[in-house]
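Quarterly update from the structural biology core.
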Amino acid sequence: MLLIDPYIFLPTKGLPYNAQRVEEVKANLKNILRINRHLKYDLIVDQTHWQDIEKRYLRVLSTSFKDAELNVALINLRNLIKKVDTTSVGAIRTWGVKPLYYGFISDEDTLFGGLIARAAAYCITQYGQANLFVEETLGRNIQEHSTGHSRIKERLRWRIYVSRAGLNGAMPVSCIYAPRNIEIPWTTRFDILLPDTGEYSFVPPANWHLRSTPAVVTKKSKPVFLDASGNGWATPNTPGQAYHWDVYLTDPKWAAARGTDQINVTRFGAPESQGVPGTIHHVPTGKASLARGK
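Predicted structure, tokenized:
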């Protein structure tokens, strides 16, 4: 079951709706509809909350921009959502909801958080699971780390938890923003373009979902994602599009096999011309005399 973060429909903080924001809304709707279509996830909304979203945001978007693609996506969304009454949920406890919803834009955030938590508890009670489609926003649920042109986004909130009478303790609700987050759960915390297949695939720490497990550290003066073996995965320090990860090796097996302390690994989603994800993309400059093939 998929819940929808109301923030995907709101204007950018402090600004009226504009063309850029409409494109962002359309991209979010595209991913929501893909999850419904390809992964067969039902879209669940609180019926009273949805009426408010329609009146305050969706009608404004539709009438202000006359964007055919946007309007078709909204029609499809309206036809697919299941409106439910969450008033029967009763008292609930939450963890992680306040950082997402309280005090981010206005007083209405508290209302958003409470309604999302109730809808999540309803879905878990009725269907055994819930996921929350969120929009990634700097300062809210992501933090950007950069050195030169090397940048990574650290996810600050990849799960929330809810509990109520009748549930087996605190139940997790994954925060997702793309279909891949459901197919490869650890991408809710780590980058969606890290390869999950291939000889040099990214393997997350065993307890990657726990906040006590570090995900982002610094290696070679760059921010990196840390894998299960302590290797650091950084984006290249070059301008423009890059189709590989700079991987700084700690794993002695990988380092011994390659004869170097750094490898460049093709990222997930790279064009076919760039190689197979999870394989060597190219030998780093200055490492060619050391590197060994396999």
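The chain has two domains: 2-188, 193-294.
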